[in-house]
Amino acid sequence: MLFGSTREELRRGWLDAWRRARTDAVLTPLETQIAALVGEHPEYHPWLERGDAALTADFGPERGESNPFLHLSMHLALREQVSTNRPAGIAAVHTRLASRYGAHEAEHRMMEMLGRALWEAQRAGRAPDETAYLESLRQLI
Q1: Cβ atoms 121, 128 nearer than 8 A
Q2: DSSP assignment of 79-120, as one string?
Q3: How far out from the chain centre does Cα 70 lie?
Q4: Which residues are CB-neighbours of 67 under 8 A, at least 6 positions away?
Q5: How is the chain split into domains, by residue range?
Q6: Chain segment 10-28, per-residue pLDDT in tens
Q7: How many whole angstroms from its chain centre is CA 89?
Q8: Helix, strand, coil abundance in the chain, percent, nearest 5
Q9: Cis ω on the peptide bond leading into residue 87 (within 30° of 0)?
Q10: What pLDDT is recorded for position 2?
Q11: Do residues 25 and 18 make contact, with C-beta atoms less than 8 angstroms apart?
Q12: pTM of this prediction?
């Protein structure tokens, strides 16, 4: 488990890691990854620097708001998939997309497919279909 099981615990983990990174504290490997991700998203810094107010904030897509915690978590999940090459073949897809768009933009494109795979699995009440997910990623190439 990343930081806990509740929304507040998960968000507090992101906030604490970012706060620690800004104070030059010694970071765990996970905190180092988080600090790098947050550093790539300056548009989220104001939210992450709100402290406890960010713990309970709701982000409504109907209001045109992006949830920084969800977005950053999707990046983290995708980077884990690529680093472990699971599903098998995802690292090659990322390499090809990164050569065309840059690593960060490649992740954004791949995150769309990850979100869709998770949504479909949740709707069907089953585990994500890795084969279908990988095929949707390959179609991005």
Answers
A1: yes
A2: HHHHHHT-STTHHHHHHHHHHHH-HHHHHHHHHHHHHHHHHH
A3: 6
A4: 59
A5: 1-65, 85-141
A6: 999 999 999 999 999 999 9
A7: 19
A8: 70, 0, 30
A9: yes
A10: 65
A11: no
A12: 0.89
